[in-house]
Write a structure and sequence with these properties.
two-stranded antiparallel ribbon; single chain; alpha/beta
Length: 166
């Protein structure tokens, strides 16, 4: 089941809890739709959402896009930049190597959405520290996290306190 719709269904059934989406694969949806989906989920639940994104495996990229991203870091940077701008209700005007967007979401009060980035290697960990609110790992042993030193990914909050947090 697609996670955005699954959690929205659960919210409609009365389960209104903070939601986190592990890592949604970037080739599956344009960043505008991703921003719209996660904001809609925050509206449906009335609670904050952590939305994780990642480039996926090269074989999956090739299957869906015709070729893999030459630079998954550049693709992730463009994607998160667009999604963050849209969620901030900015007019986004970005023409990237992999993703482009000229548009904005309509202003509507919604619970906050935190952006996550799937992290398997040091380069993506550094990018998460720069652009994301959270770094999301998968099947990663603690020894690897110590070697990568994910503490460098942590940064000060970029937003003021939010009234939706309790």
């Amino acid at each position: 089941m697609e996670p955005h719709q699954g959690f929205a269904y659960a919210a409609g059934a009365g389960f209104r809890v903070p939601t986190g989406l592990g890592v949604t694969l970037m080739p599956l949806r344009h960043p505008y739709e991703a921003a719209l989906q996660v904001r809609s989920l925050a509206l449906a639940t009335g609670r904050p959402v952590v939305a994780g994104f990642g480039p996926g495996a090269r074989s999956m990229q090739r299957s869906l896009l015709g070729e893999p991203y030459r630079s998954p870091l550049t693709a992730a940077r463009e994607y998160l930049t667009i999604v963050r701008g849209l969620l901030a209700l900015d007019v986004v005007d970005l023409k990237g190597e992999y993703f482009s967007c000229h548009g904005a979401l309509h202003a509507f009060p919604a619970p906050p959405v935190e952006l996550g980035l799937g992290v398997l290697r040091p380069g993506m960990a550094r990018l998460a520290g720069e652009l994301a609110d959270v770094a999301i790992t998968w099947l990663t042993p603690a020894s690897y996290l110590e070697d990568v030193d994910c503490r460098r990914c942590v940064k000060a909050p970029r937003r003021p306190a939010d009234p939706y947090r309790g």
